[in-house]
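We emphasize that the prediction below concerns an isolated chain of 221 residues; any contacts that depend on oligomerization or on bound cofactors are therefore not represented. The input was used exactly as deposited, without trimming of termini.
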Amino acid sequence: MQTTEGNSIKLPGSSGEHLAQAKFGTTRRAFAFYNRQMLNYLNPLMREFIGEQELLFIATSDAHGECDCSLRAGAPGFVKVLNEKTVAYPEYRGNGVMASVGNILENPHIGMIFIDFFRHTVGLHINGKASIVENAELFDRADVSPEIIEESRTRGGHAPERWIFVEVEEAYIHCSKHIPFLKKLDKKIHWGTDDVQHKGGDAFKAKDCPRPWSTADSEVC
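Result of the prediction step, given as a token string:
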């Protein structure tokens, strides 16, 4: 807690990060970052940045803190900014494990990072609370644009099965210095496919590896 003029003001971040800052002598730098770069909403440039991105990395955890990190991708602007405090991204058909969605059912906290490898080499962190919204529920929400509703009606593998809505609590830059420039090449995307080769096959040769749980009813991904 930072105290100003007798009033107690809660700083961004966790108690753990504040303890780490004190332990490793970075408190002054951290305060400067909070006061210059961190917001609890999306400003216009952040919203514009999200509208250009094709990649999103997400982190979730279950009720016990067991975590999972995953990737979401789509056409530029596939993540929708509903307003300065809310974003939504589509959940397309996947491998059926639903690790991220399952975590959100237990624990709504989510970490998101967009990284622009192609133009700006900067990233944007968003931390907040996630909720699962089925396509049929979109019609009852005043904050949903016709664009989202139309995308949810799309047929085929490119149709979202549902959406994840995120209430923004923290938004801040990931600095450019260690982000590489990458070259973007054309690739045909096979949306919703179950073709093993299009999905990467058994790239890590894991199919025949031993595992402690039963595999009698498992399917090849």
